[in-house]
Each structure stands twice: as structure tokens, then as C-alpha cells.
Amino acid sequence: MSGVITVGVDGSEHGSAAADWAAAEAALRGMELRLVHAWAQQPLDLPVTVDTEAQQRWAGNLLQETRARVTARHPDLPVTARLLPADPVPALVAESAEAAVLVLGSRGHGAFVGYLIGSIALHVLRQAKGPVVLVRSPEEEQEAGADEGEGVVEVLAGVGEEPDDVLEFAFEAAAARGAQLRAVRAWSLPPVVDWGPGSMRLADETGGLAALERKRLADALEPWRSRHPQVGVVEQVEMGSAAQVLLSSCGRGALMVVGRHASGPHGLQRIGHVAHAVLHHAPCPVAVVPHP
User: Fold this and answer.
1) What is the pTM of this model?
2) What is the edge-to-edge ordering of all strands in the sheet holding 286-291?
3) DSSP letter at 162?
4) Burial class for 16, CB neighbours closer than 10 Å (0-12, 13-18, 19+)
5) What does CATH list as the number for 4-139?
6) Under 8 Å between Cβ of 177 and 254
7) pLDDT per residue rounded down to tens, the chain (292 residues)
8) From CA 225, how far away is CA 273, in angstroms rounded?
9) CA–centroid distance for 22 within its chain
């Protein structure tokens, strides 16, 4: 994994919050911070002419100002800046393949600014090659119910059927900030047609469906607990919708980590309903980790 955390900045309040979060995370993990701004020159057939030189100057100033702000807060942090002369989505997707983490603001400038998640962030999330963290502005976090009171800081991990990538990221994030890890596994009663004799026997041997789910969570956690013995772990198994269970468990969550499949049926790129729900409603930053 690269030792670089990359953040896309665009001059918006959310982009500024993303840069501040990424700088703090890079400092915690002992990584380099890379600031990037992507822009594309205007097509020649558009009726309105844009001053591309002025746009480039503005972008360069934005990167310089952002670099000055984060280095003032983290003077020992190595910071580089890149101006990417390309459309934002493919440029940021390419950056995600090189970085340990790509950080974006949950919204930015553009036609879809009224949406809870900006259109660029959504397109990048669907195609990203590595973990992407979406960060809200501080005001929006407060409106969403982020808890600023005292208590145990937690990293939450949604543990599904392919947990290793999510747990690797979550344990590393918890270890870096000295936080507790809350591993959350939600389950529901399966359709009768999905249960054969082998599945029923396994459930009986473990003491029922709830006990079976607790065993599955414990088994998934075991190798990662041995690699990160300093991280305290809370195991939470709860019946219900995965998104609802995760959102109801935020509490003192400093970060929520969920997974997504790299592609859906017929190769279609998707985020998944659980990741989509928590991205819209979680009061803390959300990391989306692609499964192979």
C-alpha cells in the first residue's frame, strides 16, 4: 500500500473539510499528503468562453493556500500539490489507484450541489480502485447529529460476507488514532428456500441463528485482532437492516468503514444500498472500501 493520502480540493467548504481531515489522518499514520485539483479546458464548441489561464491561476492559488493552511497545523507533515489538467472523475479515479486513501468532500461545486453526495464523488466512488473517504463540512456533521461530547472514540466497521478488506482498513484506522473498534454485523431471518440440511445443522450446533452470526463475526475478527492486539474491539451482532443498525450505532464514531463490490451483475459499477445509505446519513466521515 502506498504511503500517500490524496485529497481532492475544489474550493468548496466540503473540500476544505476533506483537506483538513486528510492532513490529520496523514499525520496520524505517518504518511505523505498529496493535494490535487482536477480541471479540464473548455471544449471549443461551447458558446461561452472561459478564461482558462485565469482558471489555472485560481486552481494554483487554491492548492497553495490549502497547503499553507494544513502545514501550519501539521508542520512536520510532508505535503505535495498537483494540478491535474483532466476531467475530475477519471483524474481522481487514477489517483485512487496510487494512494493508500483518497479523500473527498461529500459535496462540491457544480450542478448537483443540492444533493447530499455530489455527482463527482458518486462517480469516483463507483470506479475507485482503493478506499475512498467522504467528509462532510463541520456544520453539516453537527446537523446530522455528530456527538462532540466526551466518551470513547470508536471506528465502526460494517462486517458483511467479505470482511477482510473492510477490517484491515478499520483496524489500521483504529490503531492510528488509539480508538476502539466497533465491529457491527447485522442479520435477518433468511428465506426458507435458502436453508438446506447443512445450514440448519450448523445453526443447531451453534445454538441458533443469532449464535451462528456471533460466531461468524468472531471468526472474521480473529486474524485481525491477533495482528492489532492494542486495538480494543466491541462485537455487536444485531437483527435488522445493515444500514439501520450501523447508523443507530454511530455514537462516538470518528469514522465508519463499509465495503462495496467492485462490480455488480453484468459488470455494472455500483456502491451498494448499505454504503449509499450511510454516506447520506452518517454524521461522521465514511470510508468505502472496494472488495476484489
Assistant:
1) 0.85
2) 79-84, 32-38, 4-8, 101-105, 132-135, 286-291, 253-261, 154-158, 180-187, 233-239
3) S
4) buried
5) 3.40.50.12370
6) yes
7) 569 999 999 998 999 999 999 999 999 999 999 999 987 665 544 455 556 788 888 999 999 999 999 999 999 999 999 999 889 999 999 999 999 999 999 875 443 333 346 788 889 999 999 999 999 887 666 555 555 445 678 999 999 988 999 999 999 999 999 999 999 999 887 655 455 555 555 555 555 788 889 999 999 999 999 999 999 999 999 999 999 999 999 877 899 999 997 665 544 567 888 998 999 899 899 999 998 7
8) 28
9) 11
Q: Which three cell numbers stand for residue 286?
A: 465514511
3-state helix, strand, coil split of the chain in percent (to 5) is: 45, 20, 35
Neighbours of 189 (CB within 10 A): 8
**Residue 237 and residue 214 in contact, taking contact as beta carbons nearer than 8 Å:** yes
Q: How far is it, in rounded angstroms, from Cα 1 to Cα 91? A: 19
Cell of 109: 461545486
Residue 270, helix vs strand vs coil: coil
Q: Break the chain into its structural domains and give their ranges.
A: 4-139, 145-291
**What residues contact 73, with CB distance under 8 A and at least 6 apart?**
20, 23, 24
CATH number of 145-291: 3.40.50.12370
Same fold, 4-139 and 145-291: yes
CA–CA separation, 178 and 230 (whole Å): 8
Contact (CB, 8 A) for 33 and 128: no
